[in-house]
Amino acid sequence: MSTNAVPNQRILLIDSNVFFARRLTEALNAQGFEVIHSTQATYALTMLEWNAPTAILCATNLRELNVFDLPRILHSDAATTNIPILAMGEGGEQSLMEAFRAGCDDYIDRRRGPENIATQVRTFLVSRLEGFRPTQMLESEQTVLEGSLSHLDLPGVIQMLSISRQSGVLYINAETLDGTIFFNYGEVLHAEVGETIGDESVIQIVKDCNGVDRGVYKFVPGSLAATRTVFRSVTELMMEALREIDEERAAANDGGYK
């Protein structure tokens, strides 16, 4: 399937700003999408049973039910659990991680404008249909790298960012784990997960993401850490994490025969 087309895609747009929603609808139409607009999430949910969309694009600033409530509702129903939910707000890094923690599939900054939002929606759905394509994603430092850990394992993502000498921050959310890894021209400068920082946090992130079925990552170019806490090379860190995974797996297997 060509990445220039995503046929028969219906977007449910939930946004109380009617003027902005009209402009965004036009931009999505130009990308080939059919758009259904609702100003309230509560009402929009009543349409899912008889007119299920390909994806839901929902604002974060709704007064009542908002996008952070949708994953809990949709994931509890087998008929709607596979509908991707894209959060759309005006926040920065904290809002992005909040969206991932809530179970959203992606976060879009509405300040980028309708045309850029529509392009990001199309890119997300193409990636979802075809799987992750790293050589396309890393053509430019201005490109945002994102996807599901079911398409590419985390060590592969980290190694790819290192080899391509990327600078920016990699956000990882997998089950209960929220982590960040900062790169500077391919070198890891800083990483944190929970109360852990530095080399050990990189190892912990890789180990905790090993074999997970539900997990997402997002790389945002340009953001640099204020201080350096990671001093070992990417290769050393990956080898250490994989070694510990193998040792823990072997210990578990040995324990099963006792």
Structural summary, described in words:
The chain has 258 residues and is an alpha/beta fold. Helices cover 38% and strands 23% of the residues. The N and C termini lie far apart (51 Å). The chain contains 9 helices and 11 strands. It has 2 domains: 10-130, Rossmann fold (3-Layer(aba) Sandwich); 136-256, no CATH class. The strands form 2 sheets. It has a 6-stranded antiparallel sheet, with helices on both faces. It is globular, with a radius of gyration of 19 Å. The model is unreliable at 1-5 and 131-143 (pLDDT under 50). It has helices at residues 18-30, 41-45, 70-74, 93-102, 114-130, 134-137, 154-163, 199-209, 234-256, and strands at 10-14, 34-38, 55-59, 85-89, 106-109, 145-148, 168-174, 177-184, 187-193, 196-197, 215-221. Helix 1 (18-30) crosses helix 5.
The CATH class of the largest domain is identified as Alpha Beta
Percent range of helical residues: 25-40%
CATH superfamily of the largest domain: Response regulator
Low-confidence stretches: 1-5, 131-143
What would you say the CATH architecture of the largest domain is? 3-Layer(aba) Sandwich
Q: What is the makeup of the main sheet?
A: 6 strands, antiparallel
Number of discrete domains = 2
Average pLDDT confidence is 81
Tell me the number of strands: 11
The global form is: globular
Strand content: 15-25%
Pattern of helices and strands: EHEHEHEHEHHEHEEEEHEH
Helix- and strand-based class?
A: alpha/beta
Radius of gyration: 19 Å
Strand order of the largest sheet: 6-11-7-8-9-10
Number of helices: 9
